[in-house]
Each structure stands twice: as structure tokens, then as C-alpha cells.
Amino acid sequence: MIKYLGSKRLLTGTISASMADLSQGDRVLDLFSGTSRVGQALKKMGLTVSSNDHNEYAHTIARCYIQADAKTTTDDAQRILDNLRDTEPEAGWFTRTYCQEARFFHPDNGAKIEAIRNRIDTLKLDEPLRSVVLVSLMEAADRVDSTTGVQMAYLKQWAARASKPLELRLPALLDGPGEATCAEATDAARAFTGRAAYLDPPYNQHSYRSNYHIWETLVRWDEPEVYGVARKRIDCKTEKSDFNSKRRIVDAFATAIDALDVQRVVVSFNNEGYLDRDTIETVLSRRGEVHTVESDYKRYVGAQIGIHNPSGERVGQVSHLRNKELLYVVDANADRGRKAAVAAANTA
User: Fold this and answer.
1) Which of 50, 52, 58, 112 could form a disulfide with 188 if both were Cys (CB 3.0 to 4.6 A apart)?
2) Long-range contacts for 229-234 (Cβ within 8 Å, ≥24 apart)?
3) Does residue 141 have a pLDDT over 50?
4) CATH homologous superfamily for 1-69+177-202+247-348?
5) At what angle do helices 277-284 and 249-259 cross, to 10 degrees?
6) Extents of the domains making up the chain
7) Sign of CA dihedral 168, 174, 179, 180
């Protein structure tokens, strides 16, 4: 699984507990799926997960881990990956942009990534097999990158892992069916009917596409116009989500919540985001009694590293290194909602 700021890896147990009373096969929506870690946990529970994200790279991850069924996909994916491992390096636009103009990958690995990605398109694979192969390449590239975990910048000196050879591995596919959509959150919410929905909206002005713009380009393979030292895609600047706007996020959140045709809604947010606790609870209270579970966690990696100037010199300390992760649970059946929140609190 790729390194991911905002991943709910440490919270999956708590989130899963909030859904533990649902029946096998119940349909559950993961509206902002990201790496699909939560969706995978819910799929392992036997729920039928529909993962949505408006970014192509996240949609590809969801196709791999949520839509793909290991029983029908594993053998074909392994055969293709075995064949791709012998691909000869071929430097071009990707290598020049992300390994020379920027330093996200060593040029040797960049050329290997580029050649494999070109070959994937020639195979004309059907979905979700194509996404499984693309995720294998994405994860291989992530294991040899030279960043602190996000693609807003790269390390001044090559990370030790950057010199390791690129290695394709079969993603850890899961048995069972699932769905993956690539839509704006409100549109996906309106289109879904099921038992429950999980929401983990963006916290602030930083879009996930901006944080992981290389994965978006690796999936689209569109050689976009780029800008800045990090060589970001131009659409990181031109396409803005209402969920990344302090002024518009409340209305966007309320609209998505009101559009959901489900009995239970579970929302994950932290106490440093644009939405404060009172606002979230007020919006959710229109659906019933709201129960909030608090967990104390380390802040993101940048906070641990500290404040640096453009030359890489440390110039200050951040104000705090921990924050509160908040899980909100509301169910049309108040008793079930209360019990689900208690179950989540017992794992927090």
C-alpha cells in the first residue's frame, strides 16, 4: 500500500467496529476512498463495498482492492506481472519530468517505470485487471521514491530506498465482489442506495491530487502541463473541489450528507480541519442522534519533521505533535447508532 497522508490505517479497527453489526452482503459506500484502506477492511467483513473517489489514481486503487475479486483475477495478474518484470528501461517524458527536472525517483528507476507503463497500455487489459497491474506499478514506484511520503516536494539528498531496483509485486487482492466509481462526492452520494456510508472528506485546502500528482499522471499517462519545483499537474491549480474550500466546505458536506439514501452514516474528521465538531454534529443531527468518539493520534509526518526554510534548514518547531481524530456515528435507529458508537469507542 502506498504511503498516504490522511490514511486511516490506524483507525480501521474503530471504523470497522462502527459497522460490525451490519449483515453480510449489506451495501456500504466509502465516499472519499483514497487508498481504499477502509473499504478493504469493510470488504474483509463480508460487506459489499462501493468505493468512490474523483481522482483517477484513487479510483484505480479501488478497482484493484475493492472491485477486483482475487478468485478470478489473481492468476491473470500474476502472469502479466511476471511478463512485465523483464521490461527494458526506456527514458522519456516521465523520467525527464520526475527524475531530472525533479528528483522524485532515481533516473534508473524512472526509466523502468516509464517503460513498464508504456507496455501496460499495449496490452489493452480489461478492468479491473488493468487497475491491478497499474497499482502494482504504483506501489513499486512508491517503494523506491525519494520523498517524506507526499509529492509536494522531494528530499534534498536521495533516500536510501531510491537506489533499490524497482520490483513489481502482486497486490494483496481480496475475495468477493465490490464496486468502484469515479465521481464527485455529491453525485456519488445521490446515486447510491444501501445500508451505510462512510465519509472521510479532505480536511483543508490541500487536495489529494496535489499531494499525489505523480500517481494521477502515472494512471492517466497524459503528459500534462506541469509547474513549479515539484512539477505538479496544471489541473492541481485549475481544478478545485468545494471540499478544499473553507468557504464552501460546509454546504458541500451538508449536501452530500442529505443526498445519502442509507440508515447509518459514519464520518471521520480531525480537530484541525475546516469543519469543526459543532458543525459536523449539527449537520448529522438532521439524520438522528449523533454519537462522537475521540481518539488521540500523532499529527502528519510534516509536523514531526518540523519547520524548514527553502534551503532545507530547520527554522522552527510546530506548535503541537498530536491531534484528535473524531468519529461520528448516526443511525436512523437510535439504539443501533448508540451501540455502534459504543463498539467503536471500545476499540479507540
Assistant:
1) 52
2) 229/102, 229/153, 230/102, 230/151, 230/152, 230/153, 230/154, 231/97, 231/98, 231/101, 231/102, 232/151, 233/209
3) yes
4) Vaccinia Virus protein VP39 (3.40.50.150)
5) 30
6) 1-69+177-202+247-348, 73-173+207-240
7) negative
